[in-house]
Amino acid sequence: MRIILFAGKGGVGKTSVAGATGVKAAAMGHKTLIMSLDIAHSLSDIFALDKALMDRNRGMPLQVDDGLWIQELDIGEEIQRNWGEVHQYIASLFNTTGLDEILAEELAILPGMEEVSSLLYLNKYVREDAFDVIILDCAPTGESLRFISIPTALEWYISKIFKIQRRVVGYVRPIAKRFYDVPLPEDDYFKALEHLFVRLEGIDTILTDPAITTVRMVTNPEKIVIKETQRAFLYFYLYRMCVDAVLVNRILPGSIKEAYFDDWKEAQRKYLRLAEEYFSPIPIFPVKLFQNEPLGKEGLAGLAEDIYGERDPTGHFFKDWPYEFSQEDGKVHIKMKLPYITKEEVEVHRLADEIVIRIGGFKKHILLPRHLAAYKDITAKMDKDCLHIVFGGKGNGKKT
Ligand SMILES: Nc1ncnc2c1ncn2[C@@H]1O[C@H](COP(=O)(O)OP(=O)(O)O)[C@@H](O)[C@H]1O
Ligand SMILES: [Mg+2]
Fold first, then answer.
1. Ion ligand 2: residues, CB < 5 A
2. Among 82, 178, 225, 274, which is most exposed with the fewest C-beta within 10 angstroms?
3. Containing domain of residue 64, as a range?
4. Do the domain assignments include residue 294?
């Protein structure tokens, strides 16, 4: 079983690239499902499918080729099915605050419910071994990050809050009913949550196992987009999800000679170099801007050729973590393996919210999580083959 997530800012080409990857995976003999996690589904458009056909097949996997299925989740229905009791309770809670019923229903769709629905499918398919490859076309970056944090958040909620809350509510319900208008959750609410939790069990292990799941960041050679990719990369990394490729989409091909595009081409070269500084040793896949939209099976197969060439798209293009955050003696360490490098060759700088590591002509940027960016006290040292950057140490800011 193999799971590949495509993540990135809105409009960068996630759905196209996910579709292309699926087409090629299926053509190479893998039983493949592409699942869209974006509410603004566009998989069926990219595959140039008839809307009526999609409607008839609403929310379920639809076979589009030999060994290839696509699935666009019907969020409303999924929420009813998976969250019925929970949703009802929350809606009734909002309702007692004077909101009208429709609005209360709408507000009761908590952030994360949609994502949980897709996690439930994912877990089910993995357990049933239903496909060789599942490709996830994620929602734009902000929301897809919420998706990866759900299993951890749920586990925390269940172990820390849920059990206590259930017991307390059991005790106070008879008394509270007489004094408060606010409804307390019935036991069905707790049962529903518990049932959900059971069906989600194990999904975090699957998502953080680099032998099964890897993330491919999709980006464009533009300043803002690259910066956002860098932040998303950091979060995936903090959640211990392995990023195995960065796809830089919409590169102007060399065959364009018009002077009008010269500045664009120069800027794109600059951002490609920057992407290498940010993400190496994770491989960068440049993807050309096509003459027209890569649509339908043929269009997507052409896009896949440009991305992967002869390679099997289900392969692991990178297996390790480029660097590691850890806590030691109450201090945060960033550790980075730098074999064959002596300490004289390494230079570490702090630049706004980034750490810049320079080794000869090679430069590496590491974006800092917000809580680390505030640290003033940073020291760096080489220990065997490993560079340690320590936050909160007693150094004077820069030392190599
Ligand atoms: N390399 C490319 N060349 C030409 N058009 C592209 C390319 N990649 C994506 N597109 C087009 O750009 C638009 C947005 O792509 P899409 O895959 O829907 O992005 P996202 O899923 O990230 O929002 C679509 O119309 C798609 O056909
Ligand atoms: Mg999309």
1. 14-15, 38, 42
2. 178
3. 2-76+115-145+204-308
4. yes
